[in-house]
Task: inverse folding
């Protein structure tokens, strides 16, 4: 599936070819902290199927506690939108594009959840919380 996207301010744009079956939700504590949310949704993409069209992302490298691997996190230096993550040591490794910056995000339905041991206890009760369609 062809996707495209941009950060919130539009300085960074990209396109990619992704497999819609490779969409996941991660509940790990790093994803919670780095996204500022209860979980992070991403789609896996081969690095050779991802192309930056404009802008230059800022980079942050985090060493994971469990494996000691170095994970690259990218974001817009102007608006701070998270863009994608991947291996900091292997530029040819797959990337995880953050769904929030993908224009077709509504079509990319998560197929799995990982790090569910860190999932927030209230996630399953979201349907019961009253909501409004606007602010």
Result:
């Amino acid at each position: 599936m062809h996707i495209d996207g941009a950060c919130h301010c539009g300085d960074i744009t990209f396109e990619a070819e992704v497999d819609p079956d490779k969409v996941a939700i991660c509940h790990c504590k790093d994803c919670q902290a780095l996204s500022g949310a209860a979980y992070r949704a991403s789609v896996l993409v081969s690095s050779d199927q991802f192309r930056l069209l404009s802008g230059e992302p800022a980079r942050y490298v985090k060493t994971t506690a469990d494996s000691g691997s170095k994970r690259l996190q990218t974001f817009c230096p102007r608006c701070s939108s998270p863009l994608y993550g991947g291996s900091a040591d292997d530029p040819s490794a797959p990337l995880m594009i953050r769904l929030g910056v993908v224009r077709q995000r509504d079509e990319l339905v998560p197929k799995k959840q990982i790090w569910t041991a860190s999932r927030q206890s209230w996630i399953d009760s979201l349907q019961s919380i009253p909501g409004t369609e606007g602010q």
In short: Residues 15 and 53 are 7 Å apart (CA to CA). The mean pLDDT is 94. The helical segments are 29-35. The chain has one domain: 2-119.
